[in-house]
C-alpha cells in the first residue's frame, strides 16, 4: 500500500501551507510548465495529449508534450489550431511570450514615437 504524505512549506509571503501529495505534485507541475499554459487548458477541456494530437492530425502526442514542457514552440498555424481547440486566445496559452513581445514592441514604438493613439492592450 502506497503511503500518502503531507508537507508543510512556507510561501514567499511567509504563509505556512500544508500540502497533500496531490497538491504538492500539482504545484511542481505548474512550476515546470510556467512558460505556457497548454497543459492547463488541455486539462480544462478534459482532453488527453492523444486526443489533441488526433484533432490536429498529428501522428503522435510527442510534439504536444514538447510544447507543454516548453522544449519547443509551435509554428503559427499550430498555435492558432491550439487556440481553436482550447477555445482561448493564443496570448492566454503563451502569456510570458505575449508579455515579453508586447513590452518589446511598446518600447520600440515609444522610441520611434510612431504611435499617436493610446494603447488599448
Describe the structure.
By secondary structure, the protein is mainly alpha-helical. The chain folds into two domains: 1-32, no CATH class; 33-96, 434 Repressor (Amino-terminal Domain) (Orthogonal Bundle). Helix content is 56%, strand content 8%. The chain is built from seven helices and two strands, in the order E-E-H-H-H-H-H-H-H. Strands 1-2 form a two-stranded antiparallel ribbon. Strand 1 (6-10) and strand 2 (16-20) form a beta hairpin. The longest helix is centred in the last third of the chain and has 18 residues, at 95-112. The chain is elongated and about 45 Å long. The model is unreliable at 24-32 (pLDDT under 50).
Brief overview:
The chain has about 120 residues and is mainly alpha-helical. Helix content is about 55%, strand content about 10%.
Q: How many strand elements? A: 2
CATH-defined topology of the largest domain: 434 Repressor (Amino-terminal Domain)
What is the CATH top level name of the largest domain? Mainly Alpha
CATH architecture of the largest domain: Orthogonal Bundle
Taken in chain order, the helices and strands follow as EEHHHHHHH
Distance between the termini: 53 Å
Are there runs of 5+ residues with pLDDT below 50, and where? 24-32
Kindly report the spatial arrangement of strands forming the biggest sheet. 1-2
